[in-house]
Amino acid sequence: MSKPNVRALLLVLSAAAFLLTLAGSALKNTVQVYFVPMADTFGGSRGALAWATTLFAVTVAVASPLVGAIADRIGGAATLAVGTALSGAALVGCALAGRLWLFVAVYAVVAALASTMLSYVPLGVLVDELFRDGRKGLMYALLTNGAAVGFVVLVPLWSWLGTWASWENVLLVVGLVFLFVLAPVALLVARASGRVTSSTASAEEAGSEEPAVRLSFAERFRLTTRNADLRRLALAMFACGATMAFIDVHFIPLMHDHGLGHTVSSTAVALLGVFEIAGGLLAGWLCDRGRIKAVLLSAYAVRGVAMLLVALTPTGTVAIAFGIVFGISYLATVIATTMWAARVLPVEVRGFGMGLVWTVHALGTALTSEAGALMADATHSYTPVTLGCAALAAAACVLVLASRVPPAETPAVPEAPLEEKSWPGSGDTPSPPSPRPSSPSPKNRRPARPELPVCMSPALVSSSW
Q: What is the residue range of 103's domain?
């Protein structure tokens, strides 16, 4: 295949993957928009319905390694195709559930697994498979912004459809679109992606003269968790997950409780999506210039201020301002934490370490999802939730201040027993004396292994390295 044809195909594949990611955000933002009518349909208890979003977050945390293994085996594009079909099945199942326990089961298991298959992990694999010329970071950022565009495009659409159709009918139609329109598109993307990647796979295998070093789960876990800075980053991400759960589950019901209509809430969420994109790009630009700690500290501080605003004066104007302010920080915490972890962790465990960080993030999401709804049922107010999220954001600022960003030129060095090994592709020489043969000469040394996106799941790292 000629280079112009490959470039054109890559553009088409990227656009299609972006579309699938955007559509996949419907699994979350439909429940976000229709949370109150859904609760009314199933008896009025928001706490009972919130079990669906709570278990959804737990499933995402548990399923990420599984999805990583699947993506490593069948490819990122094929994983997106499976996730698209599962999304259609989940939406149809939720629409036809009829009973709360069945809705919770379908949403918490099928929809959560589908959402994981349309998010960060398979997109990271896809980008690594398709782009070999140094554009991985940019393309990964663009593709993962599909969910942010979903805020802008889909939330107003669901709000408008909800004015004249039931949530069951909306989910049913959207699910059928997934099954009969988007799933075939995803299959075509998978086939086209295979054409691009097959030509490079054999060349890479031929160039690998040394076996990849594999670490056990215990070694990875020990090497990751012994780093105090990473532990603090993970605890701070608990606050990130908790505040994001407020957006996903509680923000629109709060607006509803204060008499603010769909126009205000959908506008606020749409602005959140717009400023999420802008804030993410700005955060990446600043992090590339060494401002990682300042970006992360500012993002948590801004998020805490946003939570205080909506807690004290939940008016229409404040709701719009909240969407803008929160949106600026939405992706900034993710980007800065990821780049910080890339400096803290040895390359061999970066994916595993980020997987642990995202597990803590998901736990924060699950806790705020359920506890917030239960407190709203008990107190008929979301003020305890918003104040609690503001307090968590303040605690995250303290954790960030207590941490140190290593300089990019001196990445963290693995400690014993890993320091006795010569890692393939690292360029390091074994520590003499050693009974093993000396390192190969520079002429015969295996080239440095290209780094995968640091957001990828632990399963990807352990399977492919």
A: 1-197
